[in-house]
Amino acid sequence: MAMSADEIRDKIKRSIASITFIDPGKFDDFTSYEDDLAIDSLSILEIVVDVEYQFQIKVPEEELSAIRTIGDTVKTVQKYLCVEVV
Amino acid sequence: MQPAVVVTGIGTVTSIGIGREPFWDSLLSGLCGIGDVESFDTSSYCVHRGAEVKDFRSEAFVSKLDRNCIGRASQFAIAAARLALADANLDMKTLDFERVGVTIGTTSGEPQMIERFDDAAVSGALKSVGPEFMRFYPCHVIAAHVASELDIEGVNVTIPTACAAGNYAIAHAFDVLRAGRVDLMLAGGSDSFSRITYTGFARLGAIAPEVCQPFDRNRKGMVPGEGAGILVLEPLERAVRRQARIYAEVVGYGLSCDAHHMTAAHPFGAARAMEKALSESRIEPEQVSYISAHGTGTPTNDRIETLAVKRVFKDAAYRTPISSIKSMLGHSMGAASAIEAAVCALAIFHGRVPPTINLEEPDPECDLDYVPNCARELDVNVAMNNAYAFGGNNASLILRKIEA
Amino acid sequence: MVRRVVITGAGVISSLGDSPENLHSALCEGRTGLRPIKLFSTEGLGCHLGGEVASFSAKTYLGEKNFRPLDRTSQLVAATAEMALDRSGWSVEMRGQHEVGLALGTMFCSVHTISQFDQRALVAGPAYASPMDFSNTVLNAAAGQTAIWHNLRGVNSTIAAGSASGLQAIIYATELIRSGRSQAILAGGADELCFESFYGFNRAELLCGSNHSPGDFPIPFDKRRNGFALGEGAALLVLEDAELAAERGASVLAEISGQGGGFDPSRATDSGKSIAAIARSIRLALNDAHVTPDEIGCVSMSANGSVPTDRNEAAAVAALFGERANAIPVTAIKSMLGETLGASGAMQVITLLEAMRDGAVPGISQLDEVEDNFPLRNASPDTQELDLSSGLINSVGFDGGCCSIVLSRCE
Does the beta carbon of A61 lie under 8 angstroms from any beta carbon of chain B? Predict the structure, then answer.
C-alpha cells in the first residue's frame, strides 16, 4: 500500500528526533536543518542516509545539497518512492 | 642537558616505491600511485580509486614471525623497520635491546581481521573465526610485531591517533629519547588498505573520482591509500660517534586538540599545533624553508589548512613553499605523516622538495606556493610537517639541517 | 628541571560502582562485579559471565543531552571525565582559560561500532553506511569525543598497548608533565564489553569457562585458576604539575613518583623472557622513584586469573623483592572486576589511592589455595588494614607489553 505524505513526514521526523534529540513537536515542513535546528553537516548527512535507509531509496549525490528543510526531505522521499505529492 | 635527536635511517613502504631510494626518486619525478582499487570489489560504490601498495612481498622482510598470520599493517611496519635499520647502517650487535624502543602510529590497526569477522558474521559462519582474531587484530600488535620480529625489548607503544598518528609516534619517540629512557627508537606509522575506511570516506562524499588535487580549484576529495614509514631516531652524540649518516635533526613538535568536531577541522587548532612546534623549537616562522602539508585534497581541508598557515606565518606564508605528497601517494592514513616526516628529512638532506602534482587551476582561496607539478631544488634548513586527524588531533613536527 | 606529577582527581565507572569510594568499598567487601551478561547473547559460548556496567546511562552523569553522536565507549569516557574534572576542581571556566589534555588508553576503543558499521554496509550496501558511526570507527574516537564534550584543548592522545593501555597512557601523560609540555592532563583508559571482543577472547580460550577446565570465576594466584573474565568500564585520573596544583590550592591524592615499561619479544611464549621483561619494568619504576623494594607498602598485581601470566608476574615481583617477597602485601582487583583492559591500570591506581586514604587493601576474592610453588605466597582473600604510603602498580599484557608505576603519598 502506498505511503501517504503524512506517514512519510512522521517517519522522517522520528528519524531526525533520534539523531538530534530535538522534540519532533517543534518541526514543520519549513524547519531548516541549519538555520532552525542548528545541526552540523555530519548530522544532516546522517539524517539523509537514515531516511534513505528507512525508505530504501537512493538520492543522487548532486541532489543532497538541495535538501535544506524537512519539507524538502518529504518531497525527495516522495519523488524516489514514486508517490503522488499530497 | 637533553640530547639532540637525529634521523639516521629511513624506511618506507608506499604505492610509489618500497625503500628510501626508489620512493624518493619516484616522488621527485611526480609519479602517482593512485589507480583502481584492487583489494576489494568497489562495484557497489560510486568511487573506485585508491593508492594501494603493489608488489609487496612480505617474505623479503618477515622471517621470524609467521607472515601468513600477521596482518598487512604489521607486515608493512616490519618491512619499513628493517629498511630503516639497514639504511641507518647500524651494527645490531652494538645495541642494548633493552634500550631500543618502538612507537608506531595507525588509523585502522589491522582492519582485514575485523572485516573477516564481519564477513563471517553476516554469512552465518562466525564459527570460522578462530583464535587468530584476538591474537592478530587489536591494533597494539603492530608495534608488538615489529619488536617481536627484531627482538626489541624497550618502550613499545602503538598510538592510534588516526591521520596524525605518524607524527604522534615520532613525537613520543623524541620525548623518550630526550628523557634518556632509550638509546634508539624506531618510530613511524603504518596502515593497510581498509574496506571500512573506504566505505566511511565514500559515504562522507570525501573521495575524489579520479585523482587527488590538493589546493586545486577543482579538487574533489582525497584518495585513500596505505603504506608505512619508519625513522631510526637516536641521540646526536651517538650518531656522530658511530659516524652515521645524519639526514636531519628533529627539533621539536606541537600537539593540539580542536575540541570542536569529530570530522571537520578547525583552523585555530591547526594553527596552535604549528605555533607550539615553532615555540618549542625556538624557530621563527620566517626561518621555515619548507612545509609538508596535510593537504588531503578535500575542499575543506585545503582551505582551512591554508588559513591556518597564514594565521601563523602571516606574510612569510607567501614565501614558504608548501607541498602535499598526498597528490601522489593518496592518503596513507596513520602512515602518512610518518612518510611525510621522512620526506622532510630527505628534503633537508638533498636540498630538493617534492611537488604537489595535478595542480592545474589555482584556487583563489588557496594562493600560496604549493610547488606545483615539478620538484624543486631548494636549500632546506628547516622543514615543518603538519598532520590533522579525526577527533581534532593536530600535530606539527619540525626538522632542521645539522651543520656539518 | 624535573617536574613532579601529582594526582588531583579521579573518576571511575565500573561494574562495582561509579565512584572511587563505591568501587573501593565493594572491593573491600569482596563483592564481585561478574554476573551473567545482559548486553549481548552469549549463547553457544563457553563463558557467560562478565563485569558489565549494569544499566549504564550517560544522562545520569552528563544530563539530558543528545548522545547519538557518541557510542557507548565514548559515553563511558565522557561521563568518567566529568567526574574526575569535577572532583579535581578543573571547572568549565578554568578549562576555557587553560589547556587540559587527555591521554586515553584503550585496547579496542570502538570495535563494536567498527563491526556494526561494517556489517550494515555489507548487508545493506555501502550507500547506507552511517556517516555518524564512521566518525566513531577511528580508535581515537572516545578521546576526541570527550575532548569536544569537556573542552579539553591540551594534548589529546590515544595509547594502545593491549591490556596495559591504561597504565601506559598514565606513563605517557606523566612524561608530558615532566617535560613541561602539559600542566594538567586526564589520563587513564576505557574499554567496553561487547560481543566482538568477548567472542574473540572466548574463541582464544583465554576466558574462564571457555577452555574446558572447570570454574567460571577468575581466581588470580589460585591453583584452580583457568583464565580471566572480561570486564568493562572507564577510569581517569587528573594528573597535574605539582607546582600548579599547589598554586591553585588543589587537594593532592598522591604523587606518581616512578614509572617504567618494556616488552617481551617472545610475546609471552617464553616464560623466562616474560618474567625478565616484567622485572625490568618494575626495576625501572623503582629506580625512577628512587625507592627500594623495602619502601613499597603494597603491590597491585595485574594478575587476572590467567595461568601463565599470573605466574610470570609473581615471579618477577618475587625476583625484585627477594626475601620480602612472601611478606609484601599484594592485591589483585581483577578477581572481582574481571579484566577491564584499557580501564584496568587506572582502576588499580584508584584502588590504591583509596587504600592510602582509608587504610584498607582488598584481598583476592575467592582465593582458596595458592598454586603449588607459586613465587608469591602472601596473598589472601581477606581485606588487609595497612598504613600505606607507597605502592607499586603493574600492568602486564597477555602478549608482551608491560609497565609499572610507583605511587607515593604526599606528606
Answer: yes
Local confidence band at B291 (pLDDT 50, 70, 90 cut-offs): very high
Beta strands in B5-54 (DSSP E): 5-14, 17-18, 35-36, 49-50
Is B390–C196 a contact, with Cβ atoms under 8 angstroms apart?
Answer: no
List b or e across A44-66, with b for residues whose CB sees 16 or more CB atoms inside 10 angstroms.
bbbbbbbbbbebeeebeeeeeee
- Are residues A19 and C68, on separate chains, in Cβ contact within 8 Å? yes
| Domain CATH for B221 | 3.40.47.10
The minimum CA-CA distance between C192 and chain B, rounded to whole Å, is 14
What is the pLDDT at residue A83?
52
Residue type, B311: R
B contacts of C121 (beta carbons < 8 Å): 196, 199
* Catalytically active residues of B, by annotation: 163, 294, 331
Are B216 and B291 found together in one domain? no
Residue ending a domain, among B206, B223, B241, is: B241
In a domain, A16, yes or no: yes
C267 touches chain B (CB under 8 A): yes
Task: Tell me if the pTM is above 0.90.
Answer: yes
* Shared domain check, B290 and B213: no
Closest to A42 (Cβ–Cβ): which among C66, C129, C135?
C135
Residues 102-141 of chain C with CB under 8 A from chain B are 102, 107-109, 111, 114-115, 117-119, 121-123, 125-127, 129-131, 134-141
Whether residue B295 sits in one domain with residue B167: no
Q: With a cut of 50, list the residues of chain C below it in pLDDT.
A: none
- Domain check: are B280 and B390 in the same one? yes
Query: Any idea what the CATH number is for the domain that residue A50 is in?
Result: 1.10.1200.10
Which domain does B191 fall in, by range? 5-241
Burial label for A83, CB within 10 Å (0-12, 13-18, 19+), is middle
User: What is the domain count for chain A?
Assistant: 1
For residue range B138-182, list pLDDT tens digits in order.
Answer: 999 999 999 999 999 999 999 999 999 999 999 999 999 999 999
What is the residue whose three cell numbers read 645495541?
A: B95
Whether B318 and B186 map to the same domain: the answer is no
Asked if B261 lies within 8 A of A49 by C-beta distance, the reply is no
What residue of C is the nearest CA neighbor of B176?
C175
Going by C-beta distance under 8 Å and a sequence separation of 6 or more, which residues neighbour residue C41?
C195
pLDDT of B392 reads 84
Select the residue from C158, C201, C281 to test the B interface by mutation, using most B Cβ atoms within 10 A.
C158
pLDDT tens digits, one per residue of B315-346: 999 999 999 999 999 999 999 999 999 999 99
B203 touches chain A (CB under 8 A): yes
Q: How many domains does chain B have?
A: 2
Q: How many CB atoms lie within 10 A of CB B86?
A: 14
Q: Which of B241, B263, B282 is the last residue of a domain?
A: B241
Q: How much is the pLDDT for A85?
A: 46
Give residue A84's pLDDT.
43
Instruction: Determine, yes or no, domain membership for A86.
Output: no
HSE-CB for C323 with a 13 A CA cutoff: 1
pLDDT, tens digit (0-9, with 9 covering 90-100), for B175-226? 999 999 999 999 999 999 999 999 999 999 999 999 999 999 999 999 999 9
Apex B383 CA angle, B316 and B276, nearest 5: 75
Is the confidence metric ipTM above 0.90 for this complex? yes
Q: Tell me which residue of B326, B314, B360, B338 sits closest to B142, measured CA to CA.
A: B338
Residues B305 and B170 in one domain: no
Instruction: Check CB contact under 8 Å for C131 and A20.
Output: no
Asked if A21 lies within 8 A of C65 by C-beta distance, the reply is: yes
Mutate to test the interface with B, among A39, A41, A50, A61 (most CBs of B within 10 A): A41
What is the rounded distance in angstroms from the CA atom of residue C111 to the CA atom of residue C125? 20
Classify residue B246: in a domain, yes or no: no
Domains of chain C are 5-254 (3.40.47.10), 256-408 (3.40.47.10)
* C23-36: pLDDT as tens digits: 999 999 999 999 99
